[in-house]
Amino acid sequence: MYRFIFGVVKTAISIPDETFERVETSVAELGISRSEFFARAAKKYLDELESESITAQINAAIDAGAVDEDLDRDVTEHGRRMLLELTADDEW
Length: 92
Hints:
The relative contact order is 0.05. Helix content is 68%, strand content 7%. The chain is mainly α. β1 (3-5) and β2 (8-10) form a beta hairpin. The model has no long low-confidence stretch (mean pLDDT 87). The longest helix is centred in the middle third of the chain and has 31 residues, at 34-64. It is elongated and about 70 Å long.
């Protein structure tokens, strides 16, 4: 059962003894509560999952897009010509 207290959900979790001991050491060193430790850990993990998902979506979009090498070469060459024209009178 979840109880809501000022926008915070209270819950119980089960973790291995070794993990609990490591958490206890860390919270003592950091000077934070166990609740704060687990809240930060959960947020960081969720942020990592979201980032991985966004990266996967970007990679899928790139993989789905066919690259026309001839067009790419033509656009690059056109860009170079335009740059030369626009900077012809510039002093370097």
